[in-house]
């Protein structure tokens, strides 16, 4: 109902500004209503139609603003940006040529202002609000992930520990088998919870595909690094592998500049071993807040992080679970 009211308002506003009546009003109203209706499912097509109508009629201001706003909200690929930018530039070019032929000195400035207000600003406003909604949704996913990890993870871990204690206790064979099944089910539930939490926490951040770029940036900054991959790769959940390499390279740049760093991704049948070794480096952090946060991230994805801070070597080792049987 609200959308129908918006369509009616746009039709009346633009038709009134153009001083249309009779058949002209009816035809324009139909075209405007079709463009507004298409904006819900085909925002780019509706925006292109609105630009075309604006060029032919010299008006359609309300239609331009509404379709530009909808197009800005639905931008998802580089192609969308190119289409919108091309339509705006074409609109501006046609209006500037018309202004040049009219020989009015101030008209080009007015054309720029009109195109900016009617198209560019609505597109930017729509995109900004869409990004704010995406950010709110990501924060909600993160909150849910934290609640699940803090409550369900703790309870399932207690169940697993208690079942393991009973499993090694003096029980009859039948009860021992039942307890063993309970312990296995609890461990499986914890592993599945880690996967779900990792999926909820994932917000499109960097992953394994970005490790090569991370290493190249370190080299470009003057760092010496050896990077090796061992074994066939398999899918991972989350971005812990990238963060482990990032933390290791950052620590090397801070506390052992110029030292040769070794980074390796070793794919095992059911896990990925991520290792970053820096000779002569120390963690350089008494509180270890960065490493503590990294360890928490790895645990939430079902993995394990070990830090070896020795006098002549700093080593980060992470073991991350992979999808068994999914090796490429």
TrEMBL record:
Catalytic activity annotation: ATP + protein L-histidine = ADP + protein N-phospho-L-histidine
Membrane-traversing stretches: 7-31, 43-69, 81-99, 111-130
Matches recorded under Gene3D superfamilies: 1.20.5.1930, Histidine kinase-like ATPase, C-terminal domain (3.30.565.10)
Matches recorded under SUPFAM superfamilies: ATPase domain of HSP90 chaperone/DNA topoisomerase II/histidine kinase
Keyword presence, Ion transport: no
One Pfam family here: HisKA_3
GO molecular function per UniProt: ATP binding; phosphorelay sensor kinase activity; protein dimerization activity
Keywords, comma-separated and alphabetical: ATP-binding, Kinase, Membrane, Nucleotide-binding, Phosphoprotein, Transferase, Transmembrane, Transmembrane helix, Two-component regulatory system
Enzyme class: transferase
Domain of life: Bacteria
Gene Ontology cellular component annotations, sorted alphabetically: membrane
EC number of the protein: 2.7.13.3
CDD domains: HATPase_UhpB-NarQ-NarX-like
Domain Signal transduction histidine kinase subgroup 3 dimerisation and phosphoacceptor as annotated: residue spans: 140-203
UniProt xrefs under InterPro entries: HATPase_C_sf (IPR036890), Sensor_HK_TwoCompSys (IPR050482), Sig_transdc_His_kin_sub3_dim/P (IPR011712)
PANTHER family: NITRATE/NITRITE SENSOR PROTEIN NARX-RELATED (PTHR24421), NITRATE_NITRITE SENSOR PROTEIN NARQ (PTHR24421:SF10)
Name the UniProt record assigns to this protein: histidine kinase
Species this protein is from: Nonomuraea solani
Biological classification of the source: Bacteria, Bacillati, Actinomycetota, Actinomycetes, Streptosporangiales
């Amino acid at each position: 109902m609200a959308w129908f009211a918006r369509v009616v308002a746009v039709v009346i506003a633009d038709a009134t500004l153009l001083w249309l009546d009779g058949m002209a009003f009816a035809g324009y109203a139909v075209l405007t209503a079709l463009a507004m209706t298409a904006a819900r499912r085909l925002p780019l097509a509706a925006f292109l139609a609105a630009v075309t109508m604006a060029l032919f009629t010299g008006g359609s201001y309300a239609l331009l603003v509404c379709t530009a706003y909808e197009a800005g909200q639905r931008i998802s690929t580089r192609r969308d940006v190119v289409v919108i930018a091309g339509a705006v530039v074409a609109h501006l070019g046609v209006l500037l040529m018309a202004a040049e032929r009219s020989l009015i000195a101030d008209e080009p400035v007015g054309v720029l202002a009109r195109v900016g207000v009617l198209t560019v600003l609505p597109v930017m406003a729509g995109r900004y609000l869409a990004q704010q909604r995406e950010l709110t949704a990501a924060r909600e996913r993160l909150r849910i992930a934290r609640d699940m990890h803090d409550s369900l993870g703790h309870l399932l871990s207690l169940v697993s520990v208690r079942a393991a204690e009973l499993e090694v206790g003096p029980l009859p064979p039948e009860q021992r088998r039942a307890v063993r099944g309970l312990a296995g089910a609890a461990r499986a539930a914890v592993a599945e919870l880690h996967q779900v939490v990792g999926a909820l926490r994932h917000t499109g951040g960097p992953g394994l595909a970005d490790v090569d770029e991370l290493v190249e940036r370190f080299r470009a900054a003057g760092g010496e690094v050896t990077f090796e991959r061992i074994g066939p790769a398999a899918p991972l959940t989350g971005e812990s592998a990238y963060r482990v390499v990032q933390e290791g390279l950052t620590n090397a740049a801070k506390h052992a500049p110029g030292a040769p760093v070794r980074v390796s991704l070793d794919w095992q049948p059911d896990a990925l071993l991520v290792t970053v070794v820096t000779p002569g480096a120390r963690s350089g952090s008494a509180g270890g807040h960065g490493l503590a946060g990294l360890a928490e991230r790895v645990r939430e994805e079902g993995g394990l992080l070990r830090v070896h801070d020795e006098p002549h070597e700093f080593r980060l080792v992470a073991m991350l679970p992979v999808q068994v049987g999914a090796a490429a």
